[in-house]
Amino acid sequence: MSEPSPTAPISPHAHSGRDEKVAFVIMTALLLVAPFVIYPFFLMQALCIALFACAFNLLVGYVGLLSFGHAMFLGLASYVSAHAAKVWGLDPALAILAGVASSALLGIVTGALAIRRQGIYFAMITLALSQMIYFFCLEAPFTHGEDGIQSVPQGMLLHFIDLSNQTILYYFVLAVFLFGFLVIYRTINSPFGDILKAIRENEPRAVSLGYRADQYKLAAFVLSAALAGLAGATKAIFAQNASLTDVQFSMSGEVVLMTLLGGMGTIYGPVVGAFIVVAMQQYLGQYLGEWVTVIQGSIFVVCVLLFRRGIVGEIAGFFKRSL
Amino acid sequence: MKSTCLSALMASLLLTTAAFADDKIVKLGELDDQSGLYADSGGPGSVLSVNMAVEDSGLRAKGWTIDVISADHQNKPDLAANIARQWFDVDKVDAIIGVQNSGTALAVTSVAKEKNGVFLDSGAASSDLTGKACNANMIHWAYDTYALANGTGKALVKEGGDSWFFITADYAFGHALQRDTSAVVEANGGKVVGSANVPLNTPDFSSFLLQAQSSKAKVIGLANAGGDTTNSIKQAHEFGIVEGGQKLAALLTFISNVHALGLDVAQGLTLTSTFYWDMNDGTRAFSKRWSERMKSHAEPTMVQAGDYASTLHYLKALEALGGNPHDGAKVVAKMKELPTDDPLFGKGTIRIDGRKIHPAYLFEVKKPSESKYPWDYYKLLATIPADEAFRPLAQSECPLVKK
Question: Can you tell me the ipTM of this complex?
Answer without folding.
Answer: 0.77
